[in-house]
Design a protein that fits this description.
This protein has a single domain, classed as Rossmann fold (3-Layer(aba) Sandwich). It has six helices and five strands. Strands 2-1-3-4-5 form a five-stranded parallel sheet, sandwiched between helices. Strand 4, helix 5 and strand 5 form a beta-alpha-beta unit. Helix 1 packs parallel to helix 6. It is globular, with a radius of gyration of 13 Å. The mean pLDDT is 95.
């Protein structure tokens, strides 16, 4: 299963509809508690983080890569994306432990392949 945190309904719909078309289970996470619940009841293989909701992205990265993160959390692949003009946010996501960081345009162009790859990892 892939979890995602999207900053707006457009991205949430795009991610969910792409995953559904590929037959990949994909569920939203809105906060750290929801992410912890998904991790405890599902085989979460990847998390997609929209950096346009930076506080939420930081909190979710904290669950997955923070000092209290266990082996299960650290095994989840994290892909963060955001506007190309927000270079500081992209760099911060890398520093906080995101496995892949990309611009919005790159994310949009690789979304189907990315979902398939994350589910297959």
């Amino acid at each position: 299963m892939i979890a995602y945190s999207a900053g707006d309904l457009l991205w949430a719909t795009r991610i969910k509809s792409t995953a559904d078309a590929l037959g990949i289970p994909c569920r939203p996470v809105r906060d750290a508690g929801m992410l912890r619940a998904r991790l405890s009841d599902s085989d979460v293989r990847g998390v997609l983080l929209d950096l346009e909701a930076p506080d939420r992205a930081r909190a979710l990265l904290g669950v997955l890569r923070g000092a209290d993160a266990g082996e299960r959390e650290r095994a989840v692949r994290v892909v963060a994306w955001g506007p190309h003009v927000e270079a500081d946010l992209l760099a911060e996501a890398r520093a906080l432990g995101a496995d892949e960081v990309m611009t919005r345009g790159a994310f949009a162009s690789v979304l189907p392949d990315l979902l398939a790859r994350l589910e297959g990892d």
